[in-house]
Design brief:
Radius of gyration: 25 Å
CATH architecture of the largest domain: 2-Layer Sandwich
Shape: elongated
Strand content: 5-15%
Helix content: 40-55%
Mean pLDDT: 81
CATH superfamily of the largest domain: Nucleoid-associated protein YbaB-like domain
Number of domains: 2
Structural class: mainly alpha
């Protein structure tokens, strides 16, 4: 009796796996077609990203000349960040059903009782900063904003002042 129950659970697991593979194929096709768009400075700057987050187009309105270089640079950054937010939203919308389906599938630990749950060992990635290079947010205790040469000298590294040179 227990053996039949195990066979039934395994059959359900395999059926769910096959469904999930079909869904993954559909999701991959939808994901590949995603184009995310962000705008800034009252639509004077538009940035478009593909599904991988690569900039595929940057457009400036005819009246972009009303802005100085610093304003244009800030607008390009803001538009790219808005496009990234749009990309994240679209990808979450596309991948949501798969994540829900995956959560409903039985875990291997549900079938094999002595199997340890390894899911808790997955490391959590740190939040990625959107701050520009050299900003206070990017400085750490190890790198307080020093140049590469200053860091090498501080650590006693083998820079150009090393006697081996």
């Amino acid at each position: 009796m227990a053996n039949e129950h195990l066979k039934s659970q395994l059959a359900d697991l395999l059926e769910g796996f096959q469904e999930q593979m079909g869904e993954i194929t559909r999701i991959q096709q939808r994901t590949a077609a995603v184009v995310a768009t962000g705008e800034a400075e009252q639509r004077r700057v538009t940035v478009c990203l593909n599904a991988e987050g690569t900039v595929i187009e940057t457009r400036f309105a005819d009246d972009i000349g009303d802005l100085d270089y610093e304003e244009i640079a800030a607008a390009v950054t803001a538009a790219a960040q808005a496009a990234k937010a749009d990309l994240s939203r679209q990808l979450a919308e596309i991948h949501g059903p798969l994540l829900e389906q995956r959560a409903r599938l039985p875990k291997l630990t549900d079938i094999v009782t002595d199997m340890p749950d390894l899911g808790g060992y997955t490391p959590v990635a740190p939040k990625v900063s959107a701050a520009p290079p050299g900003s206070v947010e990017r400085r750490t205790e190890e790198d307080p904003g020093l140049t590469d040469a200053e860091q090498l000298d501080r650590r006693g590294g083998s820079g150009y002042k090393d006697s081996a040179w």
